Amino acid sequence: MDETKVQLSEREMPREWYNIAADMPEPPAPVLHPGTGRPIGPADLAPLFPMELIGQEVSQERHIPIPEEVQAVYRLWRPTPLYRARRLEAALDTPARIFYKYEGTSPAGSHKPNTAVAQAYYNKKEGVKRLTTETGAGQWGSALAMACNFFGLECKVYMVKVSYHQKPYRRVLMETWGAQVVPSPSQDTNAGRGILAQAPGSPGSLGIAISEAVEDAASREDTKYSLGSVLNHVLLHQTIIGREARAQMEKADAYPDVVIGCAGGGSNFAGIAFPFLRDRFAGRAIRFIAVEPEACPSLTRGVYAYDFGDTAMMTPLVKMYTLGHTFVPAGIHAGGLRYHGMAPLVSALYQQGAIEAVACGQRAVFEASVLFTRTEGIVPAPESAHAIRVVVDEALKSKAEGRSKTILFNLSGHGHFDLAAYEQYLAGELEDYSYPVEKVREALATLPKVS
Amino acid sequence: MDETKVQLSEREMPREWYNIAADMPEPPAPVLHPGTGRPIGPADLAPLFPMELIGQEVSQERHIPIPEEVQAVYRLWRPTPLYRARRLEAALDTPARIFYKYEGTSPAGSHKPNTAVAQAYYNKKEGVKRLTTETGAGQWGSALAMACNFFGLECKVYMVKVSYHQKPYRRVLMETWGAQVVPSPSQDTNAGRGILAQAPGSPGSLGIAISEAVEDAASREDTKYSLGSVLNHVLLHQTIIGREARAQMEKADAYPDVVIGCAGGGSNFAGIAFPFLRDRFAGRAIRFIAVEPEACPSLTRGVYAYDFGDTAMMTPLVKMYTLGHTFVPAGIHAGGLRYHGMAPLVSALYQQGAIEAVACGQRAVFEASVLFTRTEGIVPAPESAHAIRVVVDEALKSKAEGRSKTILFNLSGHGHFDLAAYEQYLAGELEDYSYPVEKVREALATLPKVS
Fold it and tell me: DSSP readout, A351-374?
């Protein structure tokens, strides 16, 4: 490959998502109703999600067609480019070949619209008028705001109050696409009012914001709820990343020895990894590394157990690697990785030994990210920068061993809204956070009992 | 054309810039030495610019090869996509076909790196170790910071003090690429110290920042100066935009009836327009519209006269449309359009009747920009939004006349660092600025006398 990047034409864009459930040697554990402890059915989810997404959640079909209406919106930025990171390779003086898929070309700046557009479409198709969701730093909220705008849906985003005030530009982005954004806890829901009554100065949390968005959706006929990670159908929609990357690697006459992605809820990692995992199931030697923050190390330090998806215990119970639903991670800049659990599909694959996981400290992550910016040009999102840290480490290992190796990673988004973090790093003022042993011990003590 | 966007492969990227000087029916007026009033020669410019750029400034060659080292950096984001704005067309219910070239895919987020990379390369090649420049809102400064980083040059950016404090993220972006950024007026130059002594609270201006950057470059052997617009060689480097657009329009089986670009110093307008202007010189019917803000309408309200390029009267005299070098435009959000003059090449073409110009108010510009964001997804930079205002007007005219028309415009950058402006617009708090008759009259009274 002589090119700097491999492009696919719009005609070469994949027309199907890849559903890993069809190929997993062992299926993931069923989702349980928190009251009865029995597996939940479609009816339990119907107040929150449209039937087509509920169907995808449990589908065993290997390939699921991407509706033409969804493809049409994808084409506003997809297929995304695959880069060969020659300048980074040169800076590291490594024999490794490094490729990255760049998802920051979407108008919202990350991979999140891949599922937001699909979810908005299916909701619209089933007559839904309005979607609610929560957002922390705002990557997900802005993706859903954009998607709702394209399909003529109202969108209400409950944004964690501390982020609402700290990251006004992400909020403005959502508003520019027409969404309504309120700081959470808000006066608009029972959950919000209850918390404000007890703690008027509450800075909010993702757990609280989820509770508000779910209550809002459940209490209105015309409204459903949308989640940006964790669930099977969300991971499914992200597989277009890996399917494109496969085609592009083939054009570059290359195949990865190792695939690397950061992992918060798990969807961007799944997006790049799942379409290659199929080869591993078929016997091919290929490694996968999910990278998480030391401040929130669900795979590397959590337990594999049934837990709630949210802090307020309103969701069903899912079996996953978890630090406990009451665990509140430190305020690292990679807001998208501050989740106590991990997608059930990714968790099952980790438990089955199909993928590896590594946890990184914040300063080491930004060190790698600044090196990337100075070699490849693009300023990565702090979440994506976690993957880069491990890419650099793998490339240096390759150098130490004197052996070439092909590395592929997902650069899930740009850091244009995260420059305050870079400012702190460059000033030597970025805090590091190590594994919070005691806090995790306490949170794990509150895991629900499942017989 | 069925596609949403037309891509070129890296192999299809143009390998030459287009030099309009070779085809202009009348050459622009010579640049004069402010002391002698005589045309300047290469020796006058040598302290500030490398010889290769001075050569390009006066070249009559039609095509100038893009060095392989510059192409290699371009390939990090070029060729950029050409979009068909189908959703905008649908929203306007217009028979017009609207195409746009999107330059926001560069790591710095605008078209500015097209010349920054070339300038850094030629300076490096001639042994220069360090470049200085000025920046207002920061688009240009970040482009040059990135370019210097790629060629191992030191970069010092004098950033207008009020922007330095109001737009910290643009500053951090420059620092992440390794540049040194100081608020101007600074203590680092005689010009800066002089102003601080008289006005310690000075918010700075582009004129002051230019004086500081020029003084710095002129006073150090290892340092030269870099300018982001206005000069012939800068416009030349931007013609890669229009050359790519020509090839892409051809692939789309289309040719523009009208080409539209915003115009501050003139380089992004020149970039999209010049490679098509050649056809006009050859007799083809094609219109060109430069769009400027009502607050700073150099083409539509200025005079065509010799004037200084900077406020401090340190530059040579150039013949251009100018509002007077002492004119200070109102604080519109399109910082890149706040320049008292217009590139001599663009000015000459306007004077010769080859191009048209329109001035727009800030609120009308943002109205069009929000419509664009909600139809096409991308949030435009406030500068680029000026072009969109006139695109919308032309498309509506097309509808009123019941005649189809093919419109091409340059979306020169994204607005990720300009969301404060969108926030004001959405809140109904955006100020409008009309043509400042009195201020321009006063400024024009200070034009230098040239015999």
Answer: HTTSSEEEEE-HHHHHHHHHHHHH
Give the A:B interface size as CB pairs under 8 Å: 105
Cα distance from N-terminal residue to C-terminal residue, chain A: 55
3-state secondary structure (DSSP) of residue B234: helix
Residue B135, C-beta contacts closer than 8 angstroms, at least 6 positions apart: B141, B142, B144, B157, B158, B159, B160, B163, B170, B174, B209, B228
Asked if A410 contacts A241 with a C-beta cutoff of 8 angstroms, the reply is yes
Specify the pairing of strand B258-262 against strand B223-225: unpaired
Query: Considering only CB atoms, which chain B residues are within 8 Å of A251?
Result: none
Distance, in angstroms, between A111 CA and closest chain B CA? 14
CB contact under 8 A, B377 and A146: yes
Contact assessment for residue A379 and residue B173, using Cβ atoms and an 8 Å cutoff: yes
Q: Are A291 and A262 in contact (CB under 8 A)?
A: yes
Distance from C-alpha of B251 to C-alpha of B3, rounded to nearest angstrom: 11
CA distances from B247 to A4, A74, B6, B243, B269 (A): 20, 24, 10, 7, 18
Give the Cα-Cα-Cα angle B15, B20, B23 (nearest 5 degrees): 115
CB B387 within 8 A of CB B261: yes
Q: Is B199 on the interface with A (CB under 8 A)?
A: no
Is the per-residue pLDDT at A232 higher than 80?
A: yes
Query: B312-368 pLDDT, tens per residue?
Result: 788 899 999 999 998 988 888 998 899 899 999 999 999 999 999 999 999 999 999
The Cα–Cα gap between B387 and B371 comes to: 13
pLDDT of residue B273: 98
What are the counts of helices (DSSP H) followed by strands (DSSP E) for chain A? 18, 15
CATH code: domain B5-10+67-109+238-444 is 3.40.50.1100
Distance from CA of A370 to the nearest CA of B (A): 7
Contact A206/A160 with Cβ under 8 angstroms?
Answer: yes
Tell me the CA distances in angstroms from A331 to A339, B211, B230, one per residue in order: 12, 43, 45
Which is it for the CA torsion A101, A106, A112, A116, positive or negative? Answer: negative
